[in-house]
């Protein structure tokens, strides 16, 4: 059985992701097995995931994935380059024949040229030169790409990741073949397009639903019941195009309706309490903190009244918001530069179908796999996972959840028919 790997976040899974899975199978054959290497409870932009990893794994399995593994914490919070490199390393080691990823660009040859230019020995020196002129990182990179004859713009997140995947495949001499899938939606669109949704718009729509229900509950119990009654009378096909249910496969509506939502804002006070009291040494060892950025962040953490104020006071033309957010999250989770540079010692199994279960037999001989909830031999890495999981439970929107979730996790097993959309 041919295996295709997808490095993903599914934050949350929507119709666009279902389209990718279906197009991959259309290209490779219905008997192709899809292995999803999915970020856990935190995502690469430096935020807690909207839904817990166990629920997001179940969503992927309901919609056609065969096996969902957890992209290790230190890989999930790396830069785009590190995120792609570690994901490619793991999927290659597991024996995947293909790497499927989304792109905004339909010109795949241009993305390949950009990847080759990034690997040019002259690239790093030219990039430093442009940065020293005061250019933003994005503008400096684009000027270097043009100088090296690539010229393809890399402004969209999926194209940037696509180039990083291609670089990683080349650097690691991976046998995986790239399988790009064009995605027609806008990654950061603020409005929700049911046919081509953006995850950002979907998260916003889900958040609005929660706030509406909280408002109903604050008025009285009868009003709260009315809110739920009104929702129950609407079918998936008749909802407003701005309703979150219009953007997800219908087989996920029941899963999302009662799911615990998480956001940075919900746990902000807990985060600020930790960030304000961290010793200098923790900030000094942070990843992404070169050129004194760690010191600037440390001072802002100790004087600012909100995380937004910290971010605004720290970012600059040279240092992006995402970089600062990742630094904040790494500080909170006690992740050092050394932690992120160290290859993850194992990968967790989050869930599988019957077909996916059969894949595990050959994978376990190729790469260390650990069941969800199982304590691995590497106690140091497990301590990082446990701390991250316990703090994630404080970001629950409804109320903080009990600690110890990592040890209570169980593998999700899904059987069923093709999802109805």
Tell me about this structure.
By secondary structure, the chain is of the alpha/beta class. It has 3 domains: 3-187 and 343-383 and 402-413, Rossmann fold (3-Layer(aba) Sandwich); 199-257; 265-340, no CATH class. The protein is 49% helix and 11% strand. It contains 20 helices and 10 strands. Strands 1, 2, 5, 6, 7, 8, 9 and 10 form an 8-stranded mixed sheet that branches. A two-stranded antiparallel sheet has the order 3-4. α12 (268-277) crosses α14. The chain is globular. The two termini are 26 Å apart.
Low-confidence stretches: 213-241
Q: Tell me the major beta sheet.
A: 8 strands, mixed
Shape estimate: globular
CATH fold name of the largest domain? Rossmann fold
Tally of DSSP β-strands = 10
Question: Alpha-carbon distance between the termini?
Answer: 26 Å
Query: Which radius of gyration do the C-alpha atoms yield?
Result: 21 Å
Assign the CATH superfamily of the largest domain: HUPs
- CATH-scheme architecture of the largest domain: 3-Layer(aba) Sandwich
> What is the CATH class of the largest domain?
Alpha Beta
Helix content: 40-55%
Q: What order do the helices and strands follow? A: EHEEEHEHHEHHHHEHHHHHHHHHEHEHHE
Global mean pLDDT: 88
* Number of separate domains: 3
Number of helices: 20
């Amino acid at each position: 059985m041919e295996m295709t790997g997808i490095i993903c976040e599914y934050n949350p899974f929507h119709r666009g992701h279902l389209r990718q899975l279906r197009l991959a199978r259309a290209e490779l054959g219905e008997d192709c097995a899809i292995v999803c290497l999915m970020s856990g409870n935190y995502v690469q932009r430096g935020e807690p995931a909207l839904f817990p990893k166990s629920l997001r794994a179940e969503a992927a399995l309901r919609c056609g994935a065969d096996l969902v593994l957890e992209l290790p914490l230190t890989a999930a919070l790396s830069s785009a380059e590190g995120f792609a490199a570690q994901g490619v390393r793991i999927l290659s080691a597991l024996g995947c024949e293909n790497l499927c990823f989304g792109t905004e660009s339909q010109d795949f040859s241009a993305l390949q040229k950009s990847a080759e230019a990034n690997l040019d020995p002259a690239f790093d020196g030219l990039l430093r030169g442009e940065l020293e002129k005061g250019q933003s990182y994005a503008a400096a990179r684009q000027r270097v790409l043009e100088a090296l004859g690539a010229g393809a713009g890399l402004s969209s997140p999926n194209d940037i990741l696509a180039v990083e995947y291609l670089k990683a495949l080349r650097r690691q001499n991976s046998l995986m073949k790239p399988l790009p899938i064009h995605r027609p939606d806008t990654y950061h669109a603020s409005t929700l397009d049911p046919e081509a949704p953006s995850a950002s718009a979907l998260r916003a729509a889900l958040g609005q639903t929660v706030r509406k229900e909280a408002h109903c509950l604050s008025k009285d119990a009868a009003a709260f019941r009315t809110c739920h009654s009104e929702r129950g009378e609407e079918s998936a096909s008749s909802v407003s195009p701005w309703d979150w249910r219009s953007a997800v496969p219908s087989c996920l509506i029941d899963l999302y309706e009662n799911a615990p939502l998480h956001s940075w804002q919900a746990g902000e006070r807990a985060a600020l309490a930790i960030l304000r009291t961290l010793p200098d040494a923790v900030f000094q060892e942070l990843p992404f903190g070169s050129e004194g950025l760690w010191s600037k962040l440390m001072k802002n953490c100790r004087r600012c009244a909100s995380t937004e104020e910290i971010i605004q006071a720290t970012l600059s033309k040279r240092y992006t918001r995402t970089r600062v957010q990742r630094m904040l999250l790494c500080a909170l989770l006690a992740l050092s530069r050394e932690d992120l540079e160290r290859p993850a010692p194992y990968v967790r199994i989050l869930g599988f179908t019957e077909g996916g279960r059969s894949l595990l037999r050959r994978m376990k001989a190729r790469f260390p796999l650990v069941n969800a909830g199982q304590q691995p031999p590497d106690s140091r890495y497990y301590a990082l996972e446990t701390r991250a999981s316990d703090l994630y439970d404080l970001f629950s929107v409804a109320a903080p959840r009990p600690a110890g979730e990592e040890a209570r996790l169980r593998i999700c097993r899904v059987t069923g028919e093709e999802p109805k959309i």
